[in-house]
């Protein structure tokens, strides 16, 4: 497997998100996000860690971009922190924040790395949460579209690949798409898409009941978002179960939603076996049973679905990658896709020596990329792949106890050390090999 195993022009990158890597959450004019408030609640985050510094990409972006270049990557998927640009979510602009993203984008381009910018990665401005309950309110649609439009206008001369966000507010995401299409796309010649988190759901047994359970899970998990985009309505299974609690699209919304993206970003990490709750004997409640009416299984007849990573939700199941991509290809008429996140946190990788010696991660990437290639060879319309993540970073509830990076970060002095997996990618991505 090497770069040449993939179609010409296929892009390889790494992915991060603003809150997880930037640091400098209180200075330089940035307003607080909902995560700044959340991490302060004692007991929420492992070791009560915060992201005030995390890996300090805000100051060390040059070093990080140099790393990407050195490891032969072509692209970088980062996110823009809404409250760094609009400290109150709307209105007053923080020009320091704007200058930061200009520096980052310019440096990426200078080093030959294509920027993929995501507008929202969980870090909603706290002010909007306080003002109208944030994403629960329709008011967020306009504020998000204004923020998005500001980003298109300011960075779109250099950023040609935009992602909105991976939250249930499809309409909010697509209001931003509309602005892009109307006002910027033609001029700036870019494209815009959304990000879907896609766990592959495999039926536990070949019974009809388990097959139906797996299909319900897929519909609730990704169909919820992509079905309206391709077909202008929610999947049938959802309509039947959620009934009147499912909002109806107005005719205007259907028009706006249908066909409204240039590409789909797919975050694919893992796979579970699904079964009908009435039949399964090994129930695992992940909190979805109510509507989905399914049972999650991490094992079949006592055999785990794959080797487990550090995170308890993450099993190494490469074949699920292939099935997930072929599913989107077949059910949703093969849209342009990018694999926007894939990666793992290996268990017991705390010290530098352990961290650097990440042979389990290499195996994970090698096996998943082989399945990705198989999907591409079988016609899936994929144009790029992003490893999560460039660096160890703030892993939400797990704080710094979970390390997803291909580059190790020593949190005492923030020094970066490429792991074996980084060197593996460097070799894989060499440009001159036959
Ligand atoms: C996402 C994720 C990332 C995580 C990664 C590893 O949905 O994009 O939350 O931010 O860090 O998936 O868990």
UniProtKB/TrEMBL annotation:
Record keywords, A-Z:
Actin-binding, Glycosidase, Hydrolase, Repeat, WD repeat
Q: Which domain of life is it from?
A: Eukaryota
A cellular-component GO term for this protein = cortical actin cytoskeleton
Keyword Repeat in record: yes
List the molecular function annotations (GO) for this entry. Answer: actin filament binding; coniferin beta-glucosidase activity
Keyword GTP-binding: yes or no? no
Q: What biological processes does GO assign it?
A: actin filament depolymerization; carbohydrate metabolic process
Function statement: Binds actin. Enhances the F-actin depolymerization activity of actin-depolymerizing factor (ADF) proteins.
* Record-stated family: Belongs to the glycosyl hydrolase 1 family.
For this entry, the protein name equals beta-glucosidase
């Amino acid at each position: 497997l090497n770069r040449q195993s993939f179609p010409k022009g296929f892009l390889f990158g790494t992915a991060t998100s603003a809150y997880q890597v930037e640091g400098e959450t209180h200075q330089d004019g940035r307003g607080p996000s909902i995560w700044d408030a959340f991490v302060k609640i004692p007991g929420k985050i492992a070791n009560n860690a915060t992201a005030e510094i995390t890996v300090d990409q805000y100051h060390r972006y040059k070093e990080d971009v140099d790393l990407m270049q050195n490891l032969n990557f072509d692209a970088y998927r980062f996110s823009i922190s809404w409250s760094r640009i609009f400290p109150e979510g709307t209105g007053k602009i923080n020009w320091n924040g704007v200058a930061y993203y200009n520096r980052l984008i310019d440096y990426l381009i200078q080093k030959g790395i294509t920027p993929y910018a995501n507008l929202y990665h969980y870090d909603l401005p706290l002010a909007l949460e306080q003002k109208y309950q944030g994403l629960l309110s329709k008011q967020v649609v306009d504020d998000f579209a204004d923020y998005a439009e500001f980003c298109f206008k300011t960075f779109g001369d250099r950023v040609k690949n935009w992602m909105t966000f991976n939250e249930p507010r499809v309409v909010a995401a697509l209001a931003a798409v509309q602005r892009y299409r109307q006002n910027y796309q033609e001029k700036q010649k870019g494209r815009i898409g959304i990000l879907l988190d896609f766990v592959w759901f495999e039926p536990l047994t070949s019974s009809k009941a388990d097959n139906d359970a797996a299909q319900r899970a897929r519909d609730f998990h990704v169909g919820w978002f992509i079905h309206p985009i391709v077909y202008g309505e929610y999947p049938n299974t959802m309509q039947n179960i959620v009934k009147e609690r499912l909002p109806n699209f107005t005719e205007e919304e259907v028009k706006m939603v249908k066909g409204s993206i240039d590409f789909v970003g797919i975050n694919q990490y893992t796979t579970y076996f699904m079964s009908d709750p009435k039949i399964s004997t090994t129930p695992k409640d992940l909190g979805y049973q109510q509507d989905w009416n399914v049972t999650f299984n991490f094992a079949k007849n006592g055999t785990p679905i794959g080797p487990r990573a550090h995170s308890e939700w993450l099993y190494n199941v490469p074949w699920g990658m292939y099935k997930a991509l072929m599913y989107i290809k077949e059910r949703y008429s093969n849209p342009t896709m990018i694999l926007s996140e894939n990666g793992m946190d290996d268990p017991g990788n705390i010290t530098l020596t352990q961290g650097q010696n990440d042979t389990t991660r290499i195996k994970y990437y090698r096996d998943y990329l082989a399945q990705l290639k198989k999907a591409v060879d079988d016609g899936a319309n994929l144009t790029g792949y992003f490893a999560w993540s460039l660096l160890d970073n703030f892993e939400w509830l797990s704080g710094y106890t979970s390390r997803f990076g291909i580059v190790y970060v020593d949190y005492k002095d923030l020094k970066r050390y490429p792991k074996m997996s980084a060197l593996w990618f460097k070799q894989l991505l060499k440009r001159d090999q036959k």
